[in-house]
Amino acid sequence: MTKRCVGCGVLLQVDDSTKKGFTKSLDMDYCMRCFRLNHYHDYGTNVIEVDSAKVIQKINEEAPFVCFFIDILNLYDETIAYFKQIKKPKVLVVSKIDVLPREIPLTKIAHWLEQEYQITEKILFVQNTKTSALKMLDFLERKHISPLYFAGITNAGKSSLLNRILQVCEEKQPFITVSEMPNTTLDFLKIPLSNQQVLIDTPGLIYSYYKEDTSFLYKANVTKRILPQSFYLKPESILNLENKIFVKTNQQVPIVWFGSDKMKWQKVYKTEMASWLQYEIKEAMQVFIKGVGFFYVKKPCVLSIGGVLKENVTLVKAFLGGNNDEQN
Ligand SMILES: Nc1nc2c(ncn2[C@@H]2O[C@H](COP(=O)(O)OP(=O)(O)OP(=O)(O)O)[C@@H](O)[C@H]2O)c(=O)[nH]1
Ligand SMILES: [Mg+2]
User: What is the extent of the structural domain holding 50?
Assistant: First the structure.
């Protein structure tokens, strides 16, 4: 008998407690990992990463329509390249908009996506609320397509919004597991609704996020509206995040950090850090440390980042500015 975990979609098995899908009995609905996540908030020590290429291939083979999620803190080349790999009719769902400071208009971000990345598909902005669930439902009902695939970047909030939709529709479906860790959903998860519509949750696509222990990833996950942290960096000072990531500039410039309030940058004047990645900033840019947050750098300078790999960092032409400039 094959049975899937209702929390993450993985095939359940009773043979090997070190492998995914393990459960003590096939009578259980959730695998041990989901059980521990849901009841004890226990992530274990390792993140299980899924094969993103295989996920995209399966979506391109099966899905009649794709709602593709990228959260607002991960809009850059690598994640948008995944969106472009989806060859089926699709909509871009920009999620977690509740974390954005209020003064940043969504229309500006939509325009930036169209201009910088030639996005021609419809763009929806959502967060994990009843209003967004209703907005998604309204959009999906007008499409008259089933099954509908919820795909996209890991941790973007796909399963959370699906849970919200189930709640709004008063469906008696089991709770899909959600967590701060990447790849909480491990396999394709079929969710039949009572109106015959079928929704499919899918494993999130992995990007080059800054890989650290699970406690760091937990702290980096932004849960509340961001209060940007402003710094006036002088060449002799260095910003230090949890003694892991360091940032400095070659001249006095204001820079603003958008990231989790569970972690704070501190100014230091010395570090053992020997090798730095250097970025020449010529115009207003957002410098992403993937999976952690981004700096808004408005003035030309050379920004140096230590403690991260090259693939963990990416720069985009700033979509901030305007009203937001005033608070810097
Ligand atoms: N601030 C904020 N956090 C959210 C929102 N939606 C989900 N989250 C949080 O983001 C984290 C990831 O949510 P999931 O729903 O597990 O994300 P996912 O896209 O299903 O992730 P994978 O299964 O790994 O692909 C959890 O900690 C959620 O509580 C949102 O709208 N706003
Ligand atoms: Mg999920």
Answer: 43-201
